[in-house]
Amino acid sequence: MTGGNKIRKLEYILADAKEKGADTIVTTGGLQSNHTKITAAFAIKLGFKPILLLNGREPEVKKANLFINDLLGVEVRYIQVGNQKEMNQALDMVARKLKEEGKRPYVIPVGGSKGLGSLGYIDAYHELESQRRKMNLNFDWEFITTGSGGTFAGIYMGHLIHGSESKLVGVSPWLPAGEIRDQIIDCINEGAKYMDHSFLRYSSKVDPLTIHIDDQFIGEGYGKPTRAGMHALKLIAFTEGILLDHVYTAKTMACLLHYVETGIIEKKSKYYFGILVPQQGCLL
Ligand SMILES: Cc1ncc(COP(=O)(O)O)c(C=O)c1O
């Protein structure tokens, strides 16, 4: 089953839930959230009861991930709130109620973005580095989609650990730069707590100015395709046979193409970009 880029985070988060003796997993996302669907599937597999809080009105006809949630027999509750913070607050309220009923809930915030989940993306960066070395490639630039911040936080930490000199760009499909940067910093600080002491010298280096976020490619908002994003999606499908998604990775690729077209990325470099496409774990 596909699950966006969330599986690496869940490896750590659901292990923690098991260790803490939870019996119920409560998480939240947009109506078509990949994160909530894949969390529900893994929760079932591991013997938890999943409860999903989806932000939006319940549609009459359940399509795509909503259809799959039904197939999985998952309890879905619909909420209508304005932002990620309020979605996380709604989770806490549900968890409190479950505790009163004698349940042992484990809360996973929007997108699984918490420090523990970011550790999965430090692992991803180790893999990326070893593939890069084997292929004898050098990147001057790396582009990462950053929706709720956890993926970028892990990649950023991996980048520091490996002393990478490439420029790391987080492309936001959803939140303004300041907001997503704050979420990334929270994930880095929380993730650093799980690292051994050698990491502390890296975490003390986290300076908001070193977190480069581009929020120029959001368009009309979350889940709304943009012209530049659809152009990028088609180009990569035609030329590489790789399918990007219009919500996240197509907007990131649109940003990368813009940097190339406008000369922000110098064309003369031999390998002038690397892009990590989290859900497929591949390099272009
Ligand atoms: C395909 C894809 N890329 C990137 C992201 C963003 O990751 P994060 O929420 O950790 O910032 C998501 C989140 O759902 C995703 O599904």
User: How does the major sheet shape up?
Assistant: 5 strands, mixed
Shape by Cα distribution: globular
Q: What percent of residues adopt helix (DSSP H or I)? A: 40-55%
CATH fold label of the largest domain: Rossmann fold
**Strand percentage, roughly?**
5-15%
Determine and state the CATH class of the largest domain: Alpha Beta
Domains, number: 2
Mean pLDDT over all positions:
89
Could you say what the CATH architecture of the largest domain is?
3-Layer(aba) Sandwich
Spell out the helices and strands N to C. Answer: HEHEHEHEHEHEHHEHHEE
Q: Can you count the beta strands? A: 9
The number of helices is 10
Structural class of the helices, strands and pairings?
A: alpha/beta
Main-sheet strand order equals 7-6-5-8-9
Report how far apart the termini are: 23 Å
Low-confidence stretches: 278-284
Q: Looking at the chains present, what oligomeric state does this protein adopt?
A: single chain
Bound molecule kinds, no repeats: pyridoxal-5'-phosphate
Report the radius of gyration as a whole number of Å: 19 Å
Task: Give me a quick take on this structure.
The protein has 284 residues and is α/β, with parallel strands linked by helices.
Tell me what you see in this structure.
This protein has helices at residues 7-19, 34-45, 64-72, 84-100, 115-134, 150-161, 177-192, 197-203, 227-240, 249-261, and strands spanning 24-30, 49-55, 75-79, 105-108, 141-145, 167-171, 212-214, 274-277, 282-283. It has 284 residues and is an alpha/beta fold. It folds into 2 domains: 7-111, Rossmann fold (3-Layer(aba) Sandwich), CATH 3.40.50.1100; 115-283, Rossmann fold (3-Layer(aba) Sandwich). Strands 7-6-5-8-9 form a 5-stranded mixed beta sheet. α1 (7-19) packs across α5 (115-134), α5 (115-134) packs across α7 (177-192) and α9 crosses α10 (249-261). The longest helix has 20 residues, at 115-134. It is globular, with a radius of gyration of 19 Å. The relative contact order is 0.12. Mean pLDDT is 89; it is low at 278-284. The structure holds pyridoxal-5'-phosphate (PLP). Pyridoxal-5'-phosphate binds at residues 4-5, 34-35, 111, 113, 145-152, 245, 248-249, 278-279.
